[in-house]
């Protein structure tokens, strides 16, 4: 009796031990997988010679042996994600543990790239290579339906159904303690294999790239432990390869570990190219990126949101070319801006994304996931920020390996008029979208697509033709569609700015120009009282410059304005400006870039002349400038 | 205890690739047999986009490097040959003292044969094969060379998979984990100055282990 009692006790304790081994096996497997799929958290930095992670965590892990390290004699790097997602309390050992490694492509950044590329294209419409690059991007973009793809699915499972009999028969041969030892040894061996295996699979190459370089990528690896596992479709499963580790037999079942993974061609070829440095050139001193720089200073210097366009434009023209004094560059003419682009814009700067950089394929549409809880994705998106500005902010922030505090977002939120539509979609985008199937997308996502991608798709057909002509009309139609899609009369001006920035005014079609140009002068005139005389003059010069496109008659009409200004009668300037704007809006000239440059030069002369005369003129008359009228 | 033998797929390597390839394979195998408490160390190959794992024991690294050095110097003297490197794991058992011997007995329980076909070096001198990266002139990297490299990378990857599969399938023969023993004792056998010597070496080892089954 007593012996049988002891035996049952032993069995119980052994059962408990086995259970613990199983549990620890699950935990360790998870840890190994997550550690090799969560960037900046790997044993790659374990020895301390490549310190990407915080030094403290690395040194602590290398010096001391944690209790968990002793399990299976495998000391792993601390990986909080592993512990967080492994919910000890709720999990049953019978429940399979599934770890999905998801390749997430950052769609908005990609779209931003496309926007940028588009703008680049417009700036560089003479450069055919950009056009072709963009077109192919567009094609790729058009095919894109998902931005998320499960590239690996690890399944750790304890199977206690089939093996029971064979195990019990074999267990008679060896003592149960021996069996435990054997089981433990085999589990240890299996985990060694797993450790090597995770490094051989294609996903590790992505992880390695993400981890090893300071570059920013349009994709990231997100390991997930889904509570509800979405089974793969047959097609998906057929596309993947499977490797099953030999199960480890336990006292009453077996431990199974398998992985479904995408092949190298599926994964790496598609996504390895974004490692090109073209991404970075976008934010280093690029006029396209620089506007953000000025955001914090805006409220301080002017406090007037409508001035944003001027300020932003000024920011890069001044920063890059220190020659122009702030008061003047406050109102550089668009023509001048364009000339900057044409003259100083190097070919290397912000190349349009390479076709292969654009995500394609079977990725799930989950922009939201993109933004939620990604560690190195620090700055929250400003919900009201215009689409142009936000992704650029992201780009900047992500570009550095170290987190950059982005106060610009705060100030930008203050400056830019909130756009309820954008806000909605941004907010919505923060919701998890796991519910959306591969083919479907939630309203938020739809909304996001509305301006983020679908617009481009919509206009993809337009692009080539618009490119063949100076390539301008597309930008306009596109921006128009943004406006129309949102049907938001209060749509913030930054859009106008952006397109104003990028578009050669001489070739703007009237439809959009009308709106855009009406907008800016009014804003600027409204803010005149707050500005200095120089600024006022600058603004006036800007108006004058804007007003006449490349048409002789219109540009002639601007000359009297200057005269009026010189005669201290600028009260009519606004009228004239508006009138000339209308004229410019209707002016569908076909002047060349050279003409534009020529004209710019003459404007510059005019401006200089104006400034000179301004400085020499009677101060009292200047102060009584009738701008306030 | 039976001795499991694994013949790894033959790799066609140039002399400058030998070091990396051998390190990768040998360390991967030893890692699987280092069942004591280890801190794995990831190593990225320089020539290939492959990451392998070391068990983090300096002695292991030293031993492997020494053997690779020996092998490379042997290859320099015997170019253009197919060669085999054998990694054997054994258990140590003190033999019953007798008038014949009182030596420690090695019981081999696993052998890995790494098969290399060392190709004639095309451009770079063989002697500098240690520092392959320096020898390789990127300007000279022809298409053929890169495709060969890709092939070798794939083959090496296959070999690593082969190791994983073998380790997974054959577990019973692995001796139990002993406390304080980080890795199972192993030896690396390379062809010595002559092939016959290599054969002799093997013969000796067989004699020691007393397992004729190893011959297979």
Short description:
The complex is a heterodimer of chains A (629) and B (216). With 629 residues, chain A is α+β, with helices and mostly antiparallel strands. Chain A is built from 31 helices and 6 strands.
How would you characterize the overall build of this protein?
The complex is a heterodimer of chains A (629) and B (216). Chain A is of the alpha+beta class and 629 residues long. Chain A has a domain at 2-106 and 147-275: HORMA domain (Cell Cycle, Spindle Assembly Checkpoint Protein, Chain A, 2-Layer Sandwich). In chain A, strands 1, 2, 3, 4, 5 and 6 form a six-stranded antiparallel sheet that branches. Helices cover 56% and strands 7% of the residues of chain A. Chain A has helices at 2-35, 55-63, 67-70, 80-85, 107-123, 128-143, 164-171, 176-200, 202-212, 234-239, 264-271, 278-281, 297-301, 308-320, 326-329, 334-344, 367-371, 389-399, 407-415, 420-429, 443-452, 454-460, 462-468, 473-486, 494-502, 510-527, 533-546, 552-566, 573-586, 593-616, 619-623; strands at 97-105, 148-159, 219-224, 240-244, 248-250, 253-262. By secondary structure, chain B is of the alpha/beta class. Helix content of chain B is 39%, strand content 23%. Chain B has helices at residues 15-32, 58-77, 132-135, 143-169, 195-209; strands spanning 4-7, 11-14, 41-44, 51-54, 82-94, 104-119, 186-189. In chain B, strands 1, 2, 5, 6 and 7 form a five-stranded mixed sheet that branches. In chain B, strands 3-4 form a two-stranded antiparallel sheet. The chains are: A alpha+beta (629), B alpha/beta (216). Chain A binds chain B through residues 42-44, 46-47, 62, 65, 69-70, 73-76, 181-182, 184-186, 188-190, 192-193, 195-197, 199-200, 204-205, 208, 245-246, and chain B through 28, 31-32, 34-42, 44, 49-53, 56, 157, 160-161, 163-164, 167-169, 171, 174, 176-177.
């Amino acid at each position: 009796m007593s012996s049988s009692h002891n035996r049952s006790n032993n069995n119980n304790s052994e059962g408990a031990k086995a259970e613990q081994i199983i549990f620890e096996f699950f935990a360790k497997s998870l840890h190994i997988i997550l550690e090799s799929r969560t960037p900046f958290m790997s044993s790659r930095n374990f020895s301390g010679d490549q310190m990407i992670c915080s030094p403290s965590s690395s040194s602590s892990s290398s010096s001391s042996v944690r209790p968990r390290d002793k399990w299976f004699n495998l000391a792993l790097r601390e990986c909080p994600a592993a512990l967080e997602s492994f919910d000890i309390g709720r999990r049953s050992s019978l429940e399979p543990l599934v770890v999905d490694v998801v390749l997430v492509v950052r769609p908005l950044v990609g779209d931003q790239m496309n926007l940028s590329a588009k703008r680049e294209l417009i700036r560089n419409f003479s450069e055919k290579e950009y056009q072709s690059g963009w077109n192919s991007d567009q094609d790729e973009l058009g095919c894109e339906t998902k931005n998320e793809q499960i590239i690996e699915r690890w399944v750790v499972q304890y199977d206690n159904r089939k093996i029971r009999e064979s195990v019990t028969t074999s267990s008679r041969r060896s003592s149960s303690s021996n069996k435990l030892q054997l089981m433990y040894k085999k589990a240890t061996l299996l985990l060694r294999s797993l450790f090597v295996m995770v490094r051989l699979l294609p996903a590790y190459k992505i992880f390695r790239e993400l981890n090893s370089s300071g570059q920013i990528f349009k994709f990231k690896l997100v390991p997930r432990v889904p509570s509800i596992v979405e089974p793969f479709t047959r097609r998906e499963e057929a596309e993947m390869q499977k490797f099953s580790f030999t199960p480890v037999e336990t006292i009453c079942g077996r431990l199974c570990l398998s992985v479904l993974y995408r092949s190298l061609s599926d994964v790496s070829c598609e996504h390895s190219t974004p490692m090109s440095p073209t991404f970075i050139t976008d934010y280093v001193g690029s006029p396209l990126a620089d506007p953000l720089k000025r955001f914090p200073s805006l409220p301080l210097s002017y406090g007037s949101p409508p001035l944003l366009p001027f300020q932003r434009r000024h920011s890069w023209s001044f920063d890059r070319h220190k020659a122009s004094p702030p008061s003047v560059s406050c109102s550089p003419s668009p023509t001048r801006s364009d000339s900057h682009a044409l003259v100083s814009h190097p070919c290397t700067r912000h190349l349009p994304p390479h076709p292969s950089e654009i995500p394609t394929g079977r990725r799930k549409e989950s922009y939201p996931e993109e933004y939620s809880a990604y560690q190195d994705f620090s700055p929250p998106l400003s919900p009201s920020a215009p689409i142009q500005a936000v992704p650029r902010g992201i780009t900047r922030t992500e570009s550095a390996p170290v987190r950059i505090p982005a106060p610009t977002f705060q100030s930008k939120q203050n400056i830019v008029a909130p756009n309820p539509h954008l806000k909605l979609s941004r907010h919505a985008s923060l919701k998890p979208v796991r519910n959306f199937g591969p083919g479907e997308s939630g309203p938020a996502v739809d909304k996001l697509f509305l301006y983020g991608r679908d617009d481009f798709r919509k206009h993809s057909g337009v692009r080539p033709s618009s490119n063949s002509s100076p390539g301008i009309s597309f930008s306009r139609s596109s921006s128009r569609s943004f406006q129309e899609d949102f049907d938001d009369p209060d749509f913030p001006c930054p859009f106008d700015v952006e397109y104003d920035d990028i578009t050669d005014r001489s070739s703007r079609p009237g439809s959009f120009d009308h709106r855009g140009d009406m907008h800016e002068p009014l804003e600027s005139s409204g803010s005149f009282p707050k500005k200095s005389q120089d600024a006022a003059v600058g603004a006036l010069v800007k108006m004058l410059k804007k007003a006449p496109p490349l048409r002789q008659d219109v540009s002639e009409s601007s000359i009297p304005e200057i005269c009026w200004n010189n005669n201290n009668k600028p009260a009519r300037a606004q009228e004239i400006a508006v009138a000339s704007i209308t004229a410019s809006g209707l002016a569908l000239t076909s002047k060349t870039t050279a003409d534009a440059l020529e004209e710019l030069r003459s404007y510059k002369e005019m401006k200089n002349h104006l400034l000179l005369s301004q400085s020499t003129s009677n101060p009292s008359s200047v102060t009584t400038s009738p701008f306030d009228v | 205890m039976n001795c499991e033998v694994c013949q790894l797929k033959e790799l066609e390597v140039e002399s400058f690739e030998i070091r990396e390839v051998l390190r990768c394979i040998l360390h991967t195998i030893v890692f699987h047999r280092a069942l004591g408490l280890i801190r794995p160390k990831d190593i990225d190959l320089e020539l290939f986009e492959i990451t392998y794992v070391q068990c983090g024991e300096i002695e292991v690294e030293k031993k492997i490097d020494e053997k690779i050095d020996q092998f490379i110097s042997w290859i320099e003297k015997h170019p253009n040959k197919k060669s085999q490197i054998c990694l054997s794991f054994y258990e140590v058992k003190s033999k019953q003292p007798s008038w014949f011997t009182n030596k420690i007995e090695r019981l081999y329980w696993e052998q890995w044969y790494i098969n290399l076909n060392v190709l004639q070096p095309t451009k770079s001198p063989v002697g500098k094969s240690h520092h392959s990266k320096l020898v390789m002139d990127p300007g000279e990297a022809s298409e053929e060379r890169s495709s060969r490299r890709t092939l070798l990378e794939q083959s090496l990857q296959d070999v690593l998979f082969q190791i994983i599969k073998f380790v997974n399938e054959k577990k019973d023969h692995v001796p139990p984990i002993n406390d304080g023993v980080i890795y199972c004792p192993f030896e690396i056998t390379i062809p010595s100055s002559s092939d016959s010597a290599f054969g002799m070496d093997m013969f000796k080892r067989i004699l020691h282990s007393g397992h004729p089954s190893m011959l297979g």
